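Mods, move this if it's the wrong board.
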Amino acid sequence: MSSDVPDPDDAPAARVKNARIEDEMEQSYIDYAMSVIAGRALPDVRDGLKPVHRRILYAMQEAGVTSRSAHRKSSSIVGETMGDYHPHGDSAIYDTLARMAQDFSMRYPLVDGQGNFGSVDGDPPAAMRYTEARMAPIAEELLADIERDTVDFQPNYDDRLMEPEVLPAAFPNLLVNGSSGIAVGMSTNVPPHNLGEVIDATVELIGTPDCTVEDLMNHVKGPDFPTGANIVGRNAVHKAYKTGRGRVRVRAEFEVDEEEGRIVITELPFQQNKARLVERIADDVNEGSIEGIRDLRDESDRDGIRVVVELKRDAMAEVVKNQLLESHLERTFGVINLALVDGAPQVLDLKETLEHYVDHRREVVRRRSEHELAEREDRAHILEGRLKALDNVDDVVETIQDSEDRDAAKAALEAGFDFSAAQAEHIVRMQLGSLTSMETAEIESEYDDVTARIERLETILGDPDELDAVIIEELEAVKAEYGDERRTSFIEDTGTVTHEDLIPEEECVVVMSEDDYIKRMPLDGFRAQNRGGKGIIGVDLKEGDRVSSVFRANSHDYLLVFTNQGQIYRLKTYEIPEMSRTARGKSAVNLLDLGDGEEIEAVVNTDDLTDDEFLTMVTRDGYIKRTAVGEFENIRSTGIRALTLGDGDELVDVEVTDGETEIVIGSRNGMAIRFDEDEVRAMGRTARGVYGIDLREGDAVAGVAAIDEDRHNWVLTVTENGYGKRSDLDEYRPQSRNGMGLVDIKTGDRNGPVVALEAVTHGDHLLVMSAGGQIMRTRVEEISTVGRNTMGVIVMDLAADDEVACVDVVPEADVESGAEIDADADAEINADAEINADAEIDVESDED
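Not the wrong board. Structure tokens:
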């Protein structure tokens, strides 16, 4: 016999097979790779969990470590998980348990930890013998109804116990909490999302199965990281949702405080190590890669992140900020939406991910309904037997008494009353106390409830729409219980880092003084007061200076700035330095090329302008001019001419009109005239205009209001001494242009001359600024509604040597913060002035 042929009598040798070593290595490696892919590294698309996460949560539930129990030592949880379900070492299990408890790693942590579970600085968790844990309430939603045959089970590693192949998952956890892992030859990196947005998209998909990825993105705006920060641009997010892959730029949230000379970092990109960030910035400063930083401090605490970068006195904040952005404050999150679908890895787009989840949830609800239906039918069968026994109670009792034993009694009941074996078994075990009339009523009530539930379950199982309605109802319940606001914001991707990217959009108050000091402050820093209040300090003026103008704008608005000399400039609101209320401001010559004696008189927001609108201007001497918006497209840094002024005349006010607006011009001495806008023909930029109001000697124009009767309710007038009133639009009957008008308000010694005239409506707020720097915000409803030719009421309580300098209106649509009346504000309410109903003065208009 040949030496290479196994001896048939040698059993071990007979089992040896010849194989090429390269083939064996290839197959063995593939088997190993699939084991890692399916058994360790990749999440299941249905519940978004890897086996280790699933086993930890299931072991915690089996041990009773729920959100309603006391915390359990982490070592105990790790031990039970390792001993029963996951024999891969305690270190891997504890690392997973700790991560599920970290609120900076999980958007919605699945474990409620007690003790040191690590930090955003990269500090490791304390040893498992020191920490304690239990399930978070939202984790129980992943396990809900698992005992009702909703998912398949499989034997554990030693065939001693059964473990779930997947969890029921009452919400799309793969998208909500995300997942990351490296397998053999592939990896996954699914970002976390906002629970409410994902559930809204899931409901949309269930209701409209043929919806597109774009439709779902109306709900899912983008990743929502637990550490907040900002996503730069939306294109990468859209690509990731459409293809399953993308590279999303995430930028830290920080504030550049030029007044204090510092940059304060408050939010970091997801998974960025804060301690390492601070260390690397310090290294770059020491090496000279970043210039202009004199100090770096980490002031973070339990309330949040706060890293302070102190700048040198002569440093350019914008330069330092851009250097930090380039090297440290922006990271890329590579989205790879790879998950297991039927045990095989697959890259999924947003719709496919949700479709697989919805299919899973339909299966869960169907199996749960079938399981409950079987239980309810069994219960109904027992209750039917009990009701039959109660109807024949005497015969049933006698039959049981005449039987030799329990088995004989059951046989007699089955034969004599047509009971099933289950019914007979239940009846012979009934207590005599259950034969009372009250017990009978309870059984009948329970039977009605059970039969109603059976009908409902049969409807759910027989109608796919009803089953989907149950899924939607349960999703909405999870959203109502655990939903919250987005933490991650979006900023536009301009291709390069710009100052505007990092400026938050907010309503601002801009103040300018006669000596050309200018600054901006957040509008919400001024809470609404009752009328008659003294207001609060809005600017700390230097001696001899006075406030010249105040206006409201959004920090991202482009503004057209009109001066008293008829020049117009273009300015971005955020270019005006933001400072505190008590700051003086900075010289406006750094922003606007103002000439001697030139002051800002009006500001118009260009973001809301359209080509078919007009800028309507009025001058102190009563001229009015209307010019198309398109005439002001190209504005030089040195400004351009908005209109031509006569000797000694000045521009007073500007309003935006649409060609169908009515105009009200108010004078310093309390006169007002109302006429149609089309009485003033459109003119070029250099035109002087035409007469709008015929002023008496010594009078001058105080302001102009553009009235839209569909939007405005009143004309509001404010005088120099702090008095004002609202009057219905009907009080100002239309006239022809260039008339003397009607008496609007009595001026005199008490009121002083008129300072401002505004068209207002319900919900508007008024910003009143005094020449001495006091500013007050109040609702227009606080000011009494009276007729024309009256004295009005106190609006702002001024100091003896102070006067109202300017007024601006915050429209109802922009009233977001500070809208409630501040009861603690210094707001002394003066008694209403006596309303004087003297006869009105009505001077007919003169023709031009």
